[in-house]
């Protein structure tokens, strides 16, 4: 986690920062730090949305929404997870191939 924190630093305008935030979110989830994991996933989503600009869809934005959805699902917040997963699906369905694993995950969280 500390190496990801150093990588993220003040680089809050780089696409790679979205990836680093999502990786750190995953590491924090595995360590049982749900709130910290959610905070990083939300920060990744917010940055991805800024970087997305006027484009209608973005893989990074979709993956960040999906990370939030999965964290909420794991926390037993099914309704919130479905809402976030729907956002992920909107971003991903036109940005990745139809058989992309993230699409399958987003669809599964909608159920």
Any overview of this molecule?
The protein has 111 residues and is an all-alpha fold. It has 6 helices and no strands. The chain has helices spanning 2-8, 15-30, 34-52, 59-74, 78-92, 101-110. The model has no long low-confidence stretch (mean pLDDT 91).
Which features does this protein show?
111 residues, mainly alpha, globular
Strand content: under 5%
Largest sheet: none
Structural class by helix and strand composition: mainly alpha
Treating each run of at least 4 consecutive H or I residues as one helix, how many helices? 6
Could you list the spans in which at least 5 consecutive residues all have pLDDT below 50? none
SSE topology string = HHHHHH
Tell me the overall shape: globular
Query: Please, what is the average pLDDT?
Result: 91
List how many beta strands DSSP finds. 0
- What distance lies between the first and last C-alpha atoms, to the nearest angstrom? 32 Å
Helix content: over 70%
Q: How large is the radius of gyration?
A: 13 Å
């Amino acid at each position: 986690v500390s190496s990801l924190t150093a990588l993220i630093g003040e680089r809050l305008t780089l696409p790679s920062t979205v990836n680093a935030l999502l990786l750190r979110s995953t590491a924090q989830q595995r360590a049982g730090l749900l709130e910290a994991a959610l905070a990083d996933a939300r920060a990744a989503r917010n940055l991805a949305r800024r970087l997305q600009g006027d484009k209608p869809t973005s893989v990074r934005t979709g993956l960040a929404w999906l990370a939030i959805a999965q964290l909420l699902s794991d926390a037993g917040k099914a309704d919130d997870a479905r809402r976030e997963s729907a956002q992920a699906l909107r971003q991903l369905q036109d940005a990745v191939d139809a058989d992309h694993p993230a699409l399958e995950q987003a669809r599964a969280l909608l159920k």
